[in-house]
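Input set for joint prediction.
Command: fold jointly, output tokens.
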Amino acid sequence: GNSVTQMEGPVTLSEEAFLTINCTYTATGYPSLFWYVQYPGEGLQLLLKATKADDKGSNKGFEATYRKETTSFHLEKGSVQVSDSAVYFCALPANTGNQFYFGTGTSLTVIP
Amino acid sequence: DVKVTQSSRYLVKRTGEKVFLECVQDMDHENMFWYRQDPGLGLRLIYFSYDVKMKEKGDIPEGYSVSREKKERFSLILESASTNQTSMYLCASRLYRGPGADTQYFGPGTRLTVL
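tokens >
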């Protein structure tokens, strides 16, 4: 079945540093890929998504490219801010039915 | 915007109590989900429902049951709460099924502590 493996955290960066959070997937076919973000005390919210190979999802300065050849969907941001401190989850849906598969989450702390 | 609400943000219960967690979505979504979130384990699916009165077990259904009497409402029931059910519980909804680009929308979560 489909699954994701996500980079372990926690990650601590200084403001304006470059961020990469790695995510690789195993899938039958080419499902859409998602990044969700969870701010402290809140539920998950969609950050960005990509629907097919070579698609780039982007939002709030974050980007991720759907790489079929390396089965990856790494999250990047060129200059992080304190307000980006959160937990980030990579996810993909099952090919049939309703299941979404989530990575274990990567906690990011950005210090001023 | 889709809104998913959960009945409580924080809940403290005693071992053996019956616990009800309620979730309501306002966008006429067919599919609703209950997850629990624990440090180091990510999100684990407890149950989901794809229609009124229809439900399917997820990865960790033991000790839980669910009810979906109306399309907008999905309840998670802990028949006899135990300390190992202390966790963050997240409800979500989704319009379609399958591998497409349709996202899940999450509620704010209920942090349940069982003493």
